[in-house]
Amino acid sequence: MATASxxxxxxxxxxxxxxxSSNWYVQxxxxxxxxxxxxxxxxxxLTAEILAAPMVAEHKAALMAARPRLVASxxxxxxxxxxxxxxxxxxIVATERELIHIGHNGGILKIEPNGYAANRLENWPMGAIIxxxxxxxxxxxxxxxxxxxxxxxxxxxxxxxxPTKTGDDGILETYIKHAGLTGYYEREARSVxxxxxxxxxxxLKECDRDSGRLLVEHxxxxxxxxxxxxxxxxxxxxxxxxxxGKLKFNPFSxxxxxxxxxxxxxxxxxxxxxxxxxxxxxxSAADALLFRVLAxxxxxxxxxxxxxxxxxxxxxxxVVVGSKTEQSLRRIPLPADLLPHLPAKITxxxxxxxxxxxxxxxxxxxxxxxDCGITDxxxxxxxxxxRAADKLRAAECPQDVRWAILGHEEKSVAAGYxxxxxxxxxxxxxxxxxx
Length: 435
Fold this sequence. Notes:
alpha+beta
């Protein structure tokens, strides 16, 4: 009878015959487990290989799992699921992938990634030497000969592959191109899509509203309006896909419940406005003009930065603003209280582009709090818009005219987004806001 070493089926096989026995055996030693040697109960080699196959497959899987490898991972900057102290009395809400910076007034200042993506080395044996292709082969041979430990060449390890693009990614790309999204809005749309894909791998055509609600749960730390805004990109992308016959159902539509959790903002009072006027000289010339524009027109802060020239109608100067929503696009007459502080003619951007909305908001908030002594958390820069709306209501301005001046908050057939009123009529009413 031949020895076990000569009766193995072939090199690399896990079955053998013992001296003096006609049966075949299997011998395995998986990582972290004791050596297993078991009789397969048959003298037929082919039958023995079939019987051993499941055990060998499990053993090989254990070997693969124990090999050193690079694993894609996310390293958090701040512990997720908690609120962390922020600068100037604010706070930072940390989610799995985002840091939401909230100012002392409750407004969202910015959203940035909570950490960074990296590759983690797993199954690093004790005493292992980390090397790369730049390490001379002779040096590696010498290290192995001296018995320092296993040598791991990082450059030859299989690296995690990037997610494969699918037809669903094309739906987002089509929408971004169709809507002309660029800059921040494009980045936010892509970020929300990537977040959804990290939560759900099902094709969109197989998703239902429960799939869409995974995103709602992910953004649970935000106000419902903020969640609705984030999901709005995917709602719009899927709506376009439905219109073009690429999808039959929109899994993101209607998944955010309407909750009365919005921050309550108060208008600035007449006393507050007097304090602002008395301290306006403490602002830079550009910020003082920005404050006057917001106070006398009721524009949103971002809309003031859209002023890029002026037009006239029947001798009345006006500007066109409003890209937050389709219904906010409108013509704004330049109020009488604002005209003395404007150039003779606006021929380009009224405010420098480097003075972006977020930084301008911080400067104006500092002005209200520190220079004007307005410390009520419910009174913020946006309170100028609430004041304008109150002034128009108190003057008994018709609702459709108010919408034409301030922009519609919801879609309406009224006034054709403001184009149904003459600029002269709007001018008479906007002058009632005053500053």
